[in-house]
Design goal:
- There is one protein chain.
- The protein is of the alpha+beta class.
- It has one domain.
- Strands 4-3-2-1-5 form a 5-stranded antiparallel β-sheet. A two-stranded parallel ribbon has the order 6-7.
- A hairpin with a 2-residue loop joins β3 and β4.
- α2 packs across α3, α2 packs antiparallel against α4 and α3 packs antiparallel against α7.
- It is globular and about 65 Å long.
- It starts with 7 loop residues before the first helix and ends with a helix.
- The mean pLDDT is 93.
Length: 160
C-alpha cells in the first residue's frame, strides 16, 4: 500500500490537531511533563519539544513555524493566532507535522497495532504516550527492531 501523507483530504482530517497545537500547544505541554518525569528517573530524553510542532510549505521550501512572544513567525512573515488559524483553514495542505506531531498524524491516518523502530525512535515515541492519550489516538505497542553493531577485526582484537 502506498499512502501520500501530503494528500489534502488526509491533512483535512488532522486539521483539528493542527489547530489544537496552535491554540493549546498540547504537544509541547505533554512532552515537557513527560520529559521531566524521565529526567527525574535519570533517563536521557531523546528530543525536546518546540512550542509549536508544525512546518509550513511555501512554493519553494518548508519553514518551521515559530512562536515569538505574542505572534507566530513563518520565515519573515508574522501572524497573530487568528491569522495563523485562518491560514490553516484555507491552506491546510501547506501545513505538516514535525518529528513529535508526525507520529500522531501517522497513527491518526493509518492506525497500527504495533510500531517497530530502533532504540532512538522508540525513545521519542515513549515521550509521546500522554500526548496520544490527550487526543484519544490509540498508542501502538512499541517493538524494538533487531539491530547489531559491526566491528572490524582491529576493534574486536582491541576489545579482547
Amino acid at each position: 500500500m502506498i499512502l501520500d501523507a501530503d494528500d489534502v483530504e488526509l491533512k483535512k482530517s488532522f486539521k483539528w490537531a493542527i489547530e489544537a497545537d496552535i491554540n493549546e500547544k498540547f504537544v509541547h505541554r505533554h512532552v515537557k511533563e513527560t520529559n521531566q518525569k524521565l529526567l527525574d528517573l535519570h533517563y536521557k530524553v531523546q528530543i525536546d519539544p518546540r512550542e509549536l510542532n508544525l512546518f509550513y510549505h511555501d512554493t519553494s521550501k518548508r519553514e518551521r513555524i515559530k512562536l515569538e512572544d505574542d505572534h507566530f513567525k513563518i520565515a519573515e512573515a508574522n501572524y497573530d493566532k487568528d491569522s495563523l488559524l485562518n491560514l490553516a483553514e484555507s491552506d491546510i495542505d501547506r501545513f505538516s507535522p514535525n518529528v513529535l506531531l508526525r507520529p500522531l498524524y501517522q497513527e491518526h491516518i493509518l492506525p497500527n497495532l504495533a510500531y517497530v523502530g530502533g532504540p532512538s525512535e522508540l525513545a521519542y515515541w515513549l515521550q509521546l504516550k500522554s500526548t496520544f492519550d490527550h487526543v484519544d489516538i490509540a498508542y501502538p505497542i512499541l517493538i524494538l527492531r533487531d539491530h547489531f553493531a559491526f566491528m572490524s577485526k582491529k576493534t574486536t582484537s582491541t576489545m579482547d
